[in-house]
Amino acid sequence: MPHTRLSLLAVTFALLAGCIGCSRHTFPDVPPNYREFAYVANAGANTVSVLDLVYFRPDRTLKVGDSPMALATNPVRTEVYVVNRGSASISVIDAAANQVAATIAVRRQPSAIAIAPDGRRAFVANSGSNSISTLDLDARRELSIVSTGSIPAALALSPDARSLVVANRASASVSVFAVTPTSPAEGVPSLTVRTTIGGCPGASAVAVLSDSSKAFVACTLAHQVLAISLAAAPDSWPARQNASLLTDHSLALLDVGTNPSSLALKPDGGEIFVSNSGSDSISEIATLPNEVGGTYTIASHPAQALASADNGTLWITNQAADSVGLYSIDDGRLTGSIRTGSAPVALAFSADEHLLLAADSRSGDVAVIRTDSKQGPALFTMLPAGNTPSAIVTKSFISRH
User: Fold this and answer.
1) Distance between CA atoms of 193 and 152, rounded to whole angstroms?
2) Distance between CA 130 and CA 110 in Å, rounded?
3) 53-71 burial, b if ≥16 CB within 10 A, otherwise e?
4) Longest Cα separation, the chain
5) Separation CA 334–CA 313 (nearest Å)
6) pTM value surpassing 0.90
7) How many whole angstroms separate alpha carbon 129 and alpha carbon 107?
8) pLDDT (tens digit, 9 = 90+) per residue, 156-202?
9) How many whole angstroms separate alpha carbon 206 and alpha carbon 216?
């Protein structure tokens, strides 16, 4: 074993021994009944690891379906949803009890899930059956299914809940569905194909602006990002001013780096950052003019990025370098990196962003990075996960017990 690998293991074991179960005495105060957990989907173990972010310790391991690949949280309820690709199901985790409360059957090889802002329904991309399932989260069942393009790999619901954007990887297309409003009087929510836009080989990741006006889709095999104008509501002010905004249409195909694999939207919506896994770079897209501001070398095989709430810092997993990079958005340069476990692939912030969590797919652990320490961002501890972590989310709430 190389000396550097032995050194990393020694540091990891020391952190685990010294920090698991430690208190938050050097962190911001929280109420006595405050709870916060990280949920890690372990694709190779068919489990979800639950990590306590108040006391920095493993809480429990939950058995879910086969090959859990993606996670989502409910914005209204204390629930977390697990996409089980191998068993064609969604596991519903009750975060207050940290138990699997239900399992919802969907179609073959689900790959992604999007939750409606009201927390009552969800949409699942079924890559093995070229379909989208609509789920009733009240009744915890599949309501309906519609066809989409070949191998839907990703999807995103617009914040106004009017448009569902689906990236169809094998058919090199993007499907935009109109979503009917949700209310008991209107019956089962439905999806209707509003537009299909081609010319996006390897369509993979999707991001929608907070004003629901545009979507951006990574065309992985074409090394481009497709910008799409989403149809405005007929009675909205933008539609009254410009009739072209009543329809979905392609705006631009933007050249980025090689194999763009994920998109990170700044909270203010002004820029999107593209992780180009094949060229060890990120590309910066200005969302108003739909222009690439530049492409910058980062490290080795960037997999995912997250922008901070203050719009100042971009955090990037360097999968082949076993690190997380820090990119200053204002300065346009890489300002540092933090060592993690092996092959970090997914990131999540704690609720207050004092912590950044990196799920390490090869070493089966989670690097807990303190973002606001006096010496600058630094690794705080390592927490164990399971075999081949693939996704991570966090959920915080005030316990009623």
Assistant:
1) 14
2) 10
3) bbebebbebbebbebbbbb
4) 66
5) 10
6) yes
7) 6
8) 999 999 999 999 999 999 999 999 875 555 556 689 999 999 999 99
9) 6
